[in-house]
């Protein structure tokens, strides 16, 4: 014990010394990046109308500070409320889902459906359903809900078997397990959800202003883009990044404060799981749950139309969509159009998915191995996630083109951030005694990574892979709308400009179904792997 | 920059006059509210859904509200800001708005879905400002110049582009079309040779970037269509006809003020309605000037602003049909305008 304590103390001292030089390095690297940005923008990109230089941004911010302050306050207030309510709902839902498996089985797919709905389809609905302010808050809340839900469930299920067995041995029920074991051990992952949510809430609030607003960052963005006032556009981008980065850093600190106790819990084999049922029975039960949750989704769809008495001009019932796709005389033609577009979208989403996931995992591993890179690049990664994609698109198209390169770039940017954040948390949640063991064997950094850290991070990697599945589909439609002009993303925008809401709902339903299927496939792979490595995550 | 620079003295005089009028209006309001209302008709509140965030594009409406032109006609108007993702037709159908502005082909398409419930009652822009903008170094002056080039088409304008090229004998293999947004970066960066814009708006951005824009109006090549038309549902027209008429009277008075001198409209846009949008007097004045020739035409000089003549309606229907959308004269209702003007060419 004393040996371990001494080792920890000396590690802490040397980490203090390292921190100082690390900050120096970070500052140096950041200044270099800024200079590179300034030179590139002045010499080339500003003149092409795609990127403002740091000095132009500062000039714009200094010239009209009150304009920006007002916009940040307006958008920030929407984002904060959306962030709060979205996360609150997600954490409550996460706890309920983990405690009551039947509810999870029935309602998780509904939550996923809300996440899968394309923004272009959701915006007019929100505009018609709520007053303008509530609509914006709802959009921000919807943007954060699902990632926090997944993070929360991941965290609650990360509770180790030993303590859980102990609670049960002392006569504690599921409530006691939740209070004493699951909640404390789930906090780091929940905080990661809150961190990721900050960027999503800001983006949601900015986009909410696209359905009509007089004030806010989104309004400045629209005017800036229209007049191609690059200083204005990129000032908005910088402010949106700061609004996401400050809470990200704050909650990172909070997590570091609470992490020591949760990551130093020693691990032990969990309670033996119940005897597996025979395969046909398992498949039957799974199918029943899928069918049940499909009914829940359809019921929610219908209930939404009735509760908000949505005008039939915009609100189409499942029956109308069914007729459009199956029984209508033109159904075959309708299907053909959508099928062709779906094929295109699947290629975009598939390629983007693999690229985004790979980038996220590789970045997390590199960040874990070389902390300096993490400190230097974290602001950049947050920026990529919080800058509205409409601002980045011209730069990306210029660099990557409008073909598959551009698709991969945009999809990667949209999907890789939650992966990076979740996997980073997973890598750092390795029990202290496992690391100590590896150190006592004089294991190399790489070997520790391969033998201990990555296996421990597997649940986080799979949770990311699950979140990334529907995100990639959404990102692909976004790319199609902004850059390539084909696929289901294009169909949805076109059907909106044609007021063809039946086609819009049909396309959205197909997209959602594909996302659900995609998600289920990743889940199945996850279960197969985690049964071997991390049974506690299986609930 | 401005073609008609106002001398400072003149500008001050206008500002003083505006303030004085405003003061008088306020005084009138306060005095009338303190005495018991002797008039019988109550004030009706209308929601007016604009299509974009506050710009001088709606300058006449801002003048109408501030100068009390709506109030004088017994309507209180909530001018709702729009944006890229606002669907005004859906807002009308859902009862969220009483009046919305849009383009005739959009209204016709919505009508195909809504069972012909929407009707156009006045035309703000007599000529569509939709144009293909290129740089003067590689200009697109005629549809034939599009051949062999890459053209940026916002997704919402894809159908218009199809009809426009077909009308002008350009086949889809003659050029490449790619989606763009409402910023002109694709043209400036050389990603595309030209892109669809509003001739009244984005060319200003290109001028500001130190380049010379070339704009080709679609209206000059066979695509004759109104823009910013005022749309209501037939139910609203039946139930609130007097209020809609009052609204249009206020609009006409506001736009008459704008046409006489857009200074007040620009000032209201920049300093009041769009004050959080970071607009500048310079840009909005330029936009106000560019808008003038599509608001004032020979038709409006003869019949009044917002007028819809029989020939223009026919031209609109022909264009809408060219877009592959069914439409007939019932899409337009000129009776309100006829009642308002009574054969005159302006409102007193």
UniProtKB/TrEMBL annotation, chain A:
UniProt subcellular location: Cell membrane
Protein name: ABC transporter permease subunit
Keywords: Cell membrane, Membrane, Transmembrane, Transmembrane helix, Transport
Main location as per UniProt: membrane
One example of a Gene Ontology biological process annotation: transmembrane transport
ABC transmembrane type-1 domain boundaries: 72-255, 342-522
Entry keyword annotation includes Cell membrane: yes
Annotated membrane topology: Multi-pass membrane protein
Gene3D superfamilies: MetI-like
Top-level taxon of origin: Bacteria
GO cellular component, one term: plasma membrane
InterPro entries: MetI-like, MetI-like_sf
Naturally occurring in which organism (per UniProt): Galbitalea soli
Keyword Hydrolase (UniProt): no
Family: Belongs to the binding-protein-dependent transport system permease family.
Listed transmembrane segments: 82-100, 107-126, 138-156, 189-213, 233-254, 283-304, 353-377, 389-417, 504-522
UniProtKB/TrEMBL annotation, chain B:
This protein's record includes keyword Cytoplasm: no
Signal peptide: 1-27
A Pfam cross-reference name: NMT1
Sample GO molecular function, one term: transferase activity
SUPFAM superfamilies, per database record: Periplasmic binding protein-like II
Source organism superkingdom: Bacteria
InterPro entries hit by this protein: NMT1/THI5, SsuA/THI5
Keyword Metal-binding: yes
Catalytic activity reported: N(6)-(pyridoxal phosphate)-L-lysyl-[4-amino-5-hydroxymethyl-2-methylpyrimidine phosphate synthase] + L-histidyl-[4-amino-5-hydroxymethyl-2-methylpyrimidine phosphate synthase] + 2 Fe(3+) + 4 H2O = L-lysyl-[4-amino-5-hydroxymethyl-2-methylpyrimidine phosphate synthase] + (2S)-2-amino-5-hydroxy-4-oxopentanoyl-[4-amino-5-hydroxymethyl-2-methylpyrimidine phosphate synthase] + 4-amino-2-methyl-5-(phosphooxymethyl)pyrimidine + 3-oxopropanoate + 2 Fe(2+) + 2 H(+)
Domain SsuA/THI5-like: 57-265
Stored PROSITE patterns: PROKAR_LIPOPROTEIN
Keywords per UniProt: Iron, Metal-binding, Pyridoxal phosphate, Signal, Thiamine biosynthesis, Transferase
Metabolic or biological pathway, per its Swiss-Prot or TrEMBL entry: Cofactor biosynthesis; thiamine diphosphate biosynthesis
UniProt GO BP: thiamine biosynthetic process
Gene3D superfamilies: Periplasmic binding protein-like II
Biological function: Responsible for the formation of the pyrimidine heterocycle in the thiamine biosynthesis pathway. Catalyzes the formation of hydroxymethylpyrimidine phosphate (HMP-P) from histidine and pyridoxal phosphate (PLP). The protein uses PLP and the active site histidine to form HMP-P, generating an inactive enzyme. The enzyme can only undergo a single turnover, which suggests it is a suicide enzyme.
Family according to the record: Belongs to the NMT1/THI5 family.
Quaternary organization: Homodimer.
Name of the protein described by the UniProt record: Thiamine pyrimidine synthase
């Amino acid at each position: 014990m004393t040996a371990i304590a001494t080792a920890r103390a000396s590690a802490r001292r040397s980490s203090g010394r390292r921190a100082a030089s690390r900050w120096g390095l970070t500052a140096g690297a950041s200044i270099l990046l800024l200079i590179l940005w300034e030179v590139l923008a002045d010499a080339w990109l500003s003149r092409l109308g795609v990127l403002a230089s740091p000095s132009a941004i500062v000039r714009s911010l200094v010239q009209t500070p009150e304009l920006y302050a007002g916009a940040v306050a307006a958008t920030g207030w929407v984002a904060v409320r959306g962030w709060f309510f979205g996360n609150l709902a997600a954490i409550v839902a996460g706890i309920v889902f983990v405690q009551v498996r039947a509810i999870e089985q029935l309602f998780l797919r509904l939550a996923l459906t809300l996440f899968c709905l394309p923004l272009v389809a959701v915006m007019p609905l929100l505009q018609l359903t709520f007053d303008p302010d509530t609509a914006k808050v709802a959009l921000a809340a919807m943007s954060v809900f699902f990632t926090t839900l997944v993070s929360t469930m991941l965290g609650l299920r990360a509770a180790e078997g030993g303590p859980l067995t102990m609670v049960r041995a002392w006569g504690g029920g599921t409530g006691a397990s939740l209070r004493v074991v699951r909640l404390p051990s789930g906090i780091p992952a929940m905080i990661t959800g809150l961190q990721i949510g900050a960027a999503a809430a800001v983006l949601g609030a900015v986009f909410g202003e696209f359905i009509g607003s007089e004030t806010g960052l989104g309004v400045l963005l629209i005017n800036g883009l229209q007049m191609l006032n690059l200083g204005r556009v990129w000032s908005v981008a910088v402010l949106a990044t700061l609004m996401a980065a400050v809470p990200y850093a704050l909650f990172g600190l909070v997590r570091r404060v609470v992490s020591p106790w949760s990551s130093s819990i020693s691990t032990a084999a969990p309670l033996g799981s119940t005897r597996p049922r025979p395969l046909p029975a398992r498949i039957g039960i799974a199918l029943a749950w899928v069918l049940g949750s499909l009914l829940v989704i359809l019921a929610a769809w219908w209930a939404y139309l009735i509760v908000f008495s949505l005008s039939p001009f915009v609100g189409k019932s499942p029956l109308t969509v069914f007729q459009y796709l199956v029984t209508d005389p033109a159904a075959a033609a309708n299907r053909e159009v959508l099928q062709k577009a779906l094929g295109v979208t699947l290629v975009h989403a598939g390629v983007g998915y693999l690229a985004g996931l790979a980038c996220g995992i590789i970045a997390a591993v590199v960040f874990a191995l070389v902390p300096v890179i993490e400190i230097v690049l974290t602001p950049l990664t947050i920026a990529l996630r919080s800058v509205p994609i409409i601002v980045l698109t011209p730069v990306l198209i210029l660099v990557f083109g409008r073909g598959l390169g551009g698709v991969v770039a945009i999809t990667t940017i949209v999907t890789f951030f939650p992966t990076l954040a979740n996997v980073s948390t997973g890598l750092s949640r390795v029990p202290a005694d496992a690391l100590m063991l590896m150190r006592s064997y004089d294991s190399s950094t790489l070997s520790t990574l391969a033998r201990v850290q990555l296996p421990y991070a597997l649940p986080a990697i799979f949770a990311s892979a699950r979140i990334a599945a529907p995100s990639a589909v959404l990102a692909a439609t976004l790319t199609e709308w902004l850059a390539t002009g084909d696929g289901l993303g294009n169909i949805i925008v076109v059907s909106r400009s044609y007021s063809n809401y039946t086609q819009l709902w049909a396309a959205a339903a197909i997209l959602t179904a594909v996302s659900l299927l995609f998600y289920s496939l990743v889940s199945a792979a996850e279960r197969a792997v985690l049964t071997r490595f991390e049974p506690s995550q299986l609930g | 920059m401005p073609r008609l620079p106002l001398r400072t003295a003149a500008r001050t005089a206008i500002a003083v006059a505006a303030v004085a009028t405003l003061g008088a209006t306020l005084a009138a309001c306060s005095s009338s509210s303190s005495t018991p209302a002797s008039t019988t008709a109550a004030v009706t509140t209308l929601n007016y859904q604009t299509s974009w965030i506050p710009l001088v594009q709606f300058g006449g409406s801002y003048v109408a509200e501030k100068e009390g032109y709506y109030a004088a006609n017994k309507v209180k108007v909530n001018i709702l800001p729009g944006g890229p993702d606002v669907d005004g037709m859906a807002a009308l159908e859902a009862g969220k708005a009483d009046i919305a502005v849009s383009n005739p082909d959009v209204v016709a398409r919505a009508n195909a879905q809504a069972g012909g419930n929407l009707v156009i009652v006045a035309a703000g822009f007599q000529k569509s400002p939709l144009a293909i903008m290129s740089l003067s170094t590689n200009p697109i002056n005629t549809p034939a110049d599009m051949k062999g080039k890459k053209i940026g088409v916002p997704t919402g304008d894809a159908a218009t582009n199809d009809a426009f090229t077909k009308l002008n004998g350009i086949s889809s293999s003659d050029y490449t079309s790619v989606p763009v947004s409402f910023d002109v970066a694709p043209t400036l960066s050389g990603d595309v040779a030209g892109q669809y814009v509003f001739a009244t708006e984005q060319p200003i951005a290109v001028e500001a970037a130190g380049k010379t824009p070339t704009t080709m109006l679609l209206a000059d090549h066979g695509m004759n269509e109104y823009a910013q038309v005022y749309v209501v549902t037939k139910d609203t027209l039946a139930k609130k006809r007097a209020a809609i008429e009052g609204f249009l009277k206020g609009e006409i008075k506001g736009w008459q003020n704008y046409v006489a001198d857009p200074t007040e409209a620009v000032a209201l846009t920049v300093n009041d309605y769009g004050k959080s949008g970071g607009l500048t007097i310079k840009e909005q004045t330029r936009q106000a000037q560019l808008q003038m020739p599509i608001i004032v035409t020979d038709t409006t000089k003869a019949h009044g602003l917002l007028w819809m003549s029989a020939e223009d309606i026919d031209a609109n229907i022909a264009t809408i049909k060219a877009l592959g959308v069914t439409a007939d004269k019932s899409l337009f209702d000129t009776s309100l305008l006829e009642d308002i003007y009574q054969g005159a060419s302006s409102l007193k």
